[in-house]
Amino acid sequence: MFSLERWQEIFETISKNKLRTFLTGVSVASGIFILIILLGVSEGMQNGIEKQFQNDASNIINIYPGTTTLEYKGLNPGRRIQFTNEDYELALSGKEKVEYKSADYQIWSRLISYKKEFGSYRIQGVMPDFQYLENASIIEGRYINETDLNQLEKHIVIGNRVKKDLFKDESSLGKYVSLGGLNFKVVGVYTDPGGDREEARVYIPITTAQVVFGAGNNIRSMGFTLPKIDNYDEALAESNQFTAEIERQLKAKLLVNPLDTSGIYISNNIENTKEIYLLISSMKLFFWFVGIATLLAGIIGVSNIMLIIVKERTKEIGIRKALGAKPMSIVGMVLHESIFVTAFSGIMGLIFALGLLEFFGPMIELDFLVNPSVNFNIALSTVIILIVAGAIAGFFPAWRGAKIKPIDALRDE
Amino acid sequence: MIDIKDLHKSYKIGKNSLHVLKGINFNVKEGELVSIMGSSGSGKSTLLNILGILDEADSGSYHLDGVPIKNLNERIAANYRNKFLGFIFQSFNLINYKSALDNVALPLYYQGISRGERNDRAMSYLEKVGLAEWAEHKPNELSGGQKQRVAIARALASHPKVLLADELTGALDTKTSYEIMDLIQQINDEGKTILVVTHEEDIAQMTKRIVHLKDGVIIKDEKVEQVRALEHV
User: Fold this and answer.
1) CA torsion angle for A203, A207, A212, A215 (degrees, to 10)?
2) Which helix or strand (DSSP H or E) is residue A177 part of?
3) What domain of life is recorded for the organism (chain B) (predicted)?
């Protein structure tokens, strides 16, 4: 099958029909090219969508206090609810499956200065897990840790925006910024997919915040995530059960009417992500479908062309058979050519598409298209699909070629 | 060399069956130069196709060099064609994108002979038919007579037992036809068995034996005084 002789035969016939072979090759190459580009774009759109919608962990559960609207146990409506450390402990009690958890205390706006630079930023007292709830990633240094919390350290983690404002190009780690007349040591810089708005914040240990701002043991809100479950419906059910339990516990402790919807707000992000996950998965499906269909069109094109080639070479095949060509050698000849043309042009299309994605992918920074790229395994499997497809595309024409009777092929018209 | 007994062949055309060969008995010894004559529809082409293992008879026996030719599968038939037979066609049937040399070497390719030896042998046969200088030319750069010479060289290349020629001068003018027949006679003089199907009397006279076929039976089988083609060129 892979003797030098056969290759010579194939190159002879290909060079005899350069244009036709070229056009056939282009149809396969464009098929695989479009498939790969589509898969890359699909990946890029997924990245983009995730970035757009997921400023925070996709499955975050936030619990905020509100103002009561119903009378309960002798208490008048209109009462403002205030959470404390004990409420946070209570919310966690009896919960086994919690992935990340944090209470926070925040000051909406405070002046922070470094040397002559200053600005107003939101101050958040947080716990270590808050980083994951916010989807913040550390660029330099570290986040708030347990030791900061226990020792009431005056440590501060600043957003990238804050760093640019106060430190310009200067390094910020280990420097001290002034906040409410106290010096806080910068231990880390973070970036947040939420962009500038979420990067114009600073984080300090919640314990420190409560002392510095005279908040006693008050907290503003609390956030939790549950371990991720692949099945969306299961995840939703578990999440709802979790929030219902917390709501019951908190309402009982804080004397909020169980029917009051305003006393305690619970926002469960998982309900919002359903559409996103559906969108992403159906988009992927669509792109695969279009890509495969395009590829299929290319393969059918090859099969078609090979049929024409066999038809055109009927007489030649007849001559070869009269000279002693066995049916298998005819099948081999046609198959070999078909596989060679599809594999070669397919791999060309693949290389071109991958090159394009590799080169231009990182440059693309649209809102809904971020870093389009293709998984290497997927690229590899498309190559295998191609070679199999080339074999299938060639098989029927080859079989037809082998069935040609020399007596019919050689008959003088 | 060729031994045929009571050969029958009929074709189905729609619901009707056309009986083409109606019991042919026929022998060819080694070294003979035989022509088969007959008008169109006499069954001579069908007979040649059966002799060439391109078609199979309905009944009767066919032995080629003592080997029974019966119920062969495609693979064995191809092998026998390659080993036993050399074909020469009216329309030459050269592969037009291959050079003369490659055309002559093709039967050797199917014998699994290496490229170097193939080309050497093909070249020696091209010399034999007087076309050594034309070895690298494609068929469309050759004249009709030259094409037929290439086809003869190709038919000889695989050392066949028998050469089968189907109207080999049908597409050529008289002068070229006689040149080709001269070559055929020379090859026959060297001992090769040759069968020629023709409907031209002068060509038939250049063989040593003429078999007349009419309506599927042999009506006359006569030895003739061979006319040397060279005298008429």
Assistant:
1) 110
2) strand A176-179
3) Bacteria
Q: Give the tokens for residue A237.
A: 């059910």
Measured CA distances, B82 to B112, B122, B162 (Å): 11, 15, 11
Q: pLDDT grade, residue A375 (50/70/90)?
A: confident
Residue B164 belongs to what H/E stretch? strand B162-166
CA distances from B66 to B63, B78, B83, B84, B111 (A): 5, 18, 14, 11, 21
Q: What is the pLDDT of residue A57?
A: 67
Single-letter amino acid, residue B2? I
Q: Is B158–A323 a contact, with Cβ atoms under 8 angstroms apart?
A: yes
Q: Measured on CA atoms in the order B120, B126, B127, B132, is the torsion positive or negative?
A: negative
Calculate the dihedral angle through the C-alpha atoms of A289, A294, A296, A299, rounding to the nearest 10 degrees: -160
- The pTM of the full predicted model, rounded to 2 decimals, is 0.66
Q: Which residue ranges in chain B fall short of pLDDT 50? A: none
Average per-residue pLDDT in chain A?
A: 85
pLDDT at B141: 93
Enumerate the H helices of A177-269 as residue ranges: 196-199, 206-212, 232-254
| DSSP code of residue A227 | P
User: Residue A1's pLDDT is what?
Assistant: 44
Coil vs helix vs strand at B144: helix
Give yes or no for a contact between A154 and A183, defined as CB atoms under 8 angstroms apart. yes
Q: Does B119 touch chain A (CB under 8 A)?
A: no
Question: Other CB atoms closer than 10 Å to residue B138's CB: what's the count?
Answer: 16
3-state secondary structure of B4: strand
All domains of chain B in start order, with CATH = 2-93+161-232 (3.40.50.300)
pLDDT recorded at residue A381: 82
A244-277 pLDDT, tens per residue? 999 999 998 988 888 888 889 998 888 777 777 7
Would an 8 Å CB–CB cutoff place A329 in contact with chain B? yes
Q: In this structure, what token pair is assigned to residue A83?
A: 């959470």
Q: What is the pLDDT of residue A56?
A: 65
- Whether A17 contacts chain B with CB within 8 A: no
Average pLDDT of chain B to the nearest whole number: 90
A32 and A43 Cβ atoms separated by less than 8 Å: no
Asked if residues A46 and A279 have their Cβ atoms less than 8 Å apart, the reply is: no
SS3 at position B46: helix
Residue A94 φ/ψ, nearest 5 degrees: 75, 5
**Interface touch B78/A407, C-beta < 8 Å:** no
In this predicted model, what pLDDT tens digit does every residue of A30-51 receive, in sequence order? 888 888 888 888 888 877 777 6
Predicted confidence (pLDDT) per residue in B222-231, tens digit: 998 888 888 8
- Report residue A142 as tokens: 């570290």
Alpha carbon distance A298, A365 (integer Å): 32
SS3 A383: helix
